Every structure is written in structure tokens, then in C-alpha cells.
Amino acid sequence: MNIALVLAAGTGSRMGNADKPKQFLNVYNKPLLVHTIEAFEVNDQIEMIIIVTNKEYIDQVKVWCKQYDLNKVKNVVAGGDSRQISVYNGLQAIQSMGASDDDIIIIHDAARPLISQSIIDMNIQSCLKYGAVDTVIPASDTIIRSVDKEQIKEIQNRSELFQGQTPQTFKFSIIKNAHEYAKNHRDTDTTDDCKLVLKTGISVYLVEGSKLNFKITTFDDLMILKALLKLGKSEVL
Amino acid sequence: MFVVNYKVTSPGVLEQFIENLDYQDKVLVSVERMAICKADIRYFLGNRDRYVLDRKYPLTPIHEAVGIVIKDPTGIFNPGDNVILIPNSIDSTLCPTCPHQRCFYEEMGNNYCPFATFRSSNADGFLRKFYACEPNLLVKYSPNVDPSVAVYSELLSVANAACRRIDFSKANKIAIFGDGIMAYVVYMVLRYIYKKDLTIFGIDETKLAMFKEAKAITFNDYEDYPFDTLIECVGGKFSETAINQMIDIAQVGADLILMGVSEGGANINTRKVLEKGLNLKGITRSSRLDFETVAKALDNKNLQEAIKPMVISETAIKSIHDIYHCYEADIANTKIIGKHIMKF
Questions:
Q1: What is the pLDDT of residues B128-159, one digit of tens each?
Q2: Are A135 and A166 in contact (CB under 8 A)?
Q3: Given A193, B23, B113, B253, which residue has the most CB atoms within 10 angstroms?
């Protein structure tokens, strides 16, 4: 079974004065989260969707699922204090629903609404082959490493650098073991699931993402999204 | 839902756009196969009057497509149903005050309504992964039919619109002029739906060889056939020659059906038209009725086999470059009757 685990538990602290987390802001009269869920809802390979969200938004998210006919959403669970704990909570919910070790878990940020069908499909195909995959795009800017934020410590070869996106996709047994391993080692604040999996000695393979699959983190990102949508507005002539 | 679609923005230029697709209360369809029409190529190359083009761009091309139903709140379709996408529609709220009233004249159909919209012409087309529409703009077809075969349904529907208007009680000798894709599609409809014997007039021996169940010859081999029904599928600059040849070999009182698009007009022998009392009809537009006929006919294995050679290639659209590739391949193809099919 292919299960999408959509993370919508962020606080949106970088969105300035917004009165709600970014994933709940309306774009075209629909919360950003709903736009993202729809991409998985219409994908014929996705069989189930689990949403992890802020505790106080669980009822609201359930209402949206009904309102927007998101039938593949089978559970909405509470997130934790960190991304890692939120994913863990989602995995626990998936396990309690009878997941098997070979099930494919597609973990995606709710704040990436422009996820394409081909990226979802490639994640599933590659995960079936390798067991653990990460969506990336080649780094187009030079990446500067600075420890003190004042001077350059290191500039690595750009051809070897990629920017990580989501989905990150794993066989259930692999991601479950990685989280248990981290928990046993008191590692609770890792922001990337691939990093957890690598720590268990499992290789993670790359899937080509897209620049359009950017994360809405700041108001500037939201402006870019809206500008893209305005450009694309079509009319009957 | 945010979706990607592709538009021709100026001659030779395709661009990717992001749109918000509002599909509430509509059937949501995943577009599976698309074929490029000659009209799409004209808009892509800018081979229309500049004034016309300025009003068209940016325009999502493609009006030949099939898909799979994802959701249907009306309950008419089930998720997973294979459907043909109908490109023409009307705003029925205009009907009560419409001076033309063509929609109620079944022989012609609503595609001849001056207020009708047609995808990839005066409304955005199907070159997109997801499409939402009213259920009456979809026709279900059998899951046993290869989608790359079914994508020819729109062309077949146009051929059917012409063929169903033939009075078969009087049509004993039928000729098709042309050896291109339209001629081949009309041949398939007449042969496999209406079970008719046919003569095909063309110039390319290789292409004529594809018309396996018809007498396919060049005009030079013409002896003395008084045809009572002649169908022109040539179009372009050679349509004039073809139409005059048709007039020459038409029986008195024959029906001439014109299906080829010619931008520059055609100088035809009207004296002979009058002498022979010929009937000329122009038919390039189909209606839902034709799509339904074609959807049923696609179950015919012989028809499926006849369509298969027209699928020159199937290209998965992963980026805009793949679309350019298909356009360029279809533009360059002058030798094979068929198209380079696009799939998502």
C-alpha cells in the first residue's frame, strides 16, 4: 500500500503577522493544505493519506476533508514539538492501522502545494526499487558554509550539492526503524527523515524534484506562488 | 488544486503555466493521451492571420484527448472509467434567445452554433494533466481499447459527422480524395462502421498501401467511374485540384463532401457543378452524437487494428521539451499516416 503522510503541524513562525500557520492560509479560497492534499488525492497510486497537524486544528482539518471530498484521508493525528516527533506520531498512527513492512510511506510537507504527479510517481517507483529515496534538485547557487556567520569556512563543489525537497519516501520498516533508532539514542530534533535513515546505515537514493516544488515558508514565497497562479489564469476567448 | 498546463504564447513558443483548477461539482479527469491536430500545428507555427493569432495567444492547444475519471460528484461516471473528451460546447443559457437555433438541428449539431466554444481554438485545450468539465462533455469507452487508439476518437467523430449525412440508399459508388490522415479516418469509418466499398484517390503509393480494404489508386489510373458520392480530404493548396477532379468524375446529381481546410480558397469549376446539378456540403465539425457512435465502434477489433499503425510513437510528457519534440516530429512527418501521441 502507498500511504502519503502529510505534515501540517508547523507554526509558520516565519510568516510574520499571519494569524494562522502558513499551511492553513487561503489561496483561491482554499487552505494551502487542501491544495497539497488534493495532489495526493488524485494520484491513482496513492491509496491512503494521513495528515499530521497541530492539535487545535485537527477538527478543522477533518471538516475540510469532508468539505473538499478528500476521501483518501483516513486519519488526522496530532503533531509534536518537532518535525521528527510529528513524523513519528504519523508513523505510529499508520502502524496502528495495520501497516505492513513493505508499505510505501511518502512523507511530504503541506507547505509544498506545487508537488507534481510525476514526482509522486517517481518517488513510489524508486522506493519500490531502493527502499529509501529523497527528492532533490541540483544546487544552482554556490553554497557557502560559515560557522560564525561572518566569514567563509568552506565552499564545496557545487556539482556534488543538491537541495533537498519532499516527498521523502521509504518502506515502512526502514523509516519506522530509523525513528526507533533515533528515539533510543535520544535524538528527537532531526529535521530530515533521510538523515535519520542514513544513521541506520541504509542508503538513500535521489529522485529529481522541481524548482516549482518549493516550500511556502515566508510571505515572499506566498507572493511568488500567487504570482505564478495569476500568470497562468486562463480565460475562454 | 494547483495544476500545470501548457500554452502556445507566440509562434513556436510553448510555456508552462500553473493554474488553480476548481473541480467542485464537475467531473475531474486525468488526461492520459493527446494527439496534435493540423490546427494545433497552425497555431503553434503561427500560420494564421496575425490578427487572429493575436486574439488566440496564449492558448492551451490540443483537442484530441482521452482520459480517466478521477471523481464525479454527479454519479454518472465511476472513478477509473475511460472517457473521450469532447472539445466543443455551448452555453445553453443562451439558447432561448439565440437567433441561429442550430443546436436543435441534429444533422448539424451544436458545434455549428456561432456561439459554440471549441477547445484549442477559442477556448483552452487539453494539454494538461488534469481537466474538469460537465459530464455531458465526456463519453465513456471500453477499457479493452488502448488509449493511444482511442485518442483518434475526435478525428473519427468528424469523419462520422460526414458519413452519417450520406444518403446510403443512393450512395452506390463512393470515392475518397486524399491519402492523408483525414482520408484514412474517413476510410475507416465508412469501411468499419458503415461497411462500404470504397475507392481512394491519392498520389503517394506508400500511403495508399495503408488503405488495405479499399481500391486505392492514383488519379492517373482513373478510367471511367461515375461516382455518386465523393469526399474531399485533401485541404491546403491541392484542394482546388482535388475538388475539380471530383467534379469531373462525379455522376449527375452526385454529392460532394468537402472536409479539407484550405486557407487560400479554391477556384472550382462552377459551370460543371451547375451542369451536373451537384450538391456540395462542408463538414468538419462533429457533435456528441458522433462521439457516442465512435465510442461504440471502437469495440470493433478490425477498427482497432486499422488505427494501430497510426500510432507512430508514444512520448511520456515529463517536461515541456517532450512536447516540443512531439510537435517537431509531427510537423516533420509527411511520409506516414499517423501521429506522435503524447501521454502524461
A1: 999 999 999 999 999 999 999 999 999 999 99
A2: yes
A3: A193
Single-letter amino acid code for the residue at B313: S
Q: Which of residues 73-92 of B touch A (CB under 8 A)?
A: 73
Render pLDDT for A213-233 as a digit per residue (tens, 0 to 9). Answer: 999 999 899 999 998 888 765
d(C-alpha B124, C-alpha B329), whole Å:
23
Please report, in angstroms and rounded to a whole number, the separation of the first and last CA atoms in chain A.
44
| Cβ of residue A69 closer than 8 Å to a chain B Cβ | yes
The answer to whether the CB of A176 falls within 8 A of the CB of A115 is no
Cis preceding linkage at B58, omega within 30: yes
Cell numbers found for residue A23: 499551511
Q: Cell triple for residue B107?
A: 444533422
Cβ distance B124 to A39 less than 8 Å, yes or no, reads: no
- Give burial (CB, 10 Å; 0-12/13-18/19+) of B341: buried
Measured distance CA(B220)–CA(A225) in Å, rounded: 62
Beta pairing partners, A144: A155
C-alpha dist (Å) from residue A202 to A90, A160, B23, B107, B304: 21, 20, 42, 67, 49
**B93 vs B91: CA distance, rounded Å:** 5
Enter the pTM of the model: 0.89
Across the interface, whether the CB atoms of A232 and B130 are under 8 A apart is answered no
- Which residues lie across from A78 on neighbouring strands? A53
